[in-house]
Amino acid sequence: MVITRAGQVRTTNPLRPLTPEVNEVLQVVIAGKVATAYGPDFTTLRRGGAASGVEAMLGSPIHWEPTLPTFPDPIAIVSEEGTPLAQLTFRACEAPPAVKAPKVPKAEARKKAPRQAAPKAAAPKTPPGFSMPQGAIAE
Asked: What is the mean pLDDT of the chain?
């Protein structure tokens, strides 16, 4: 796992407007794929999907930091219940690896429906320029 950037998501609880909730977010590359990890601090991060999914789930945009901060060693990844999934220890600083481009779903070519001749317009029920009051003729 290589950490490529870090940021924070600040959300305000309407019941406690003076104390916003802050979640730490890490964007990582694992086996050539981009993923995220988020949580209240770096000692209890949960795995996440794409950054846009984390933003939608937490309800606020991620404010990415210009540089990486100092991280604790090890970084713990936990499940939703809080049980540890992984302890990630620091190995070395290195350049970010190449990332596989996400698969773009191919749009299927639409099959054009055979054109049907437009139905002939029926003769107008009222002469042009003459308006019939609504409800004058029972249907």
From this structure: 77
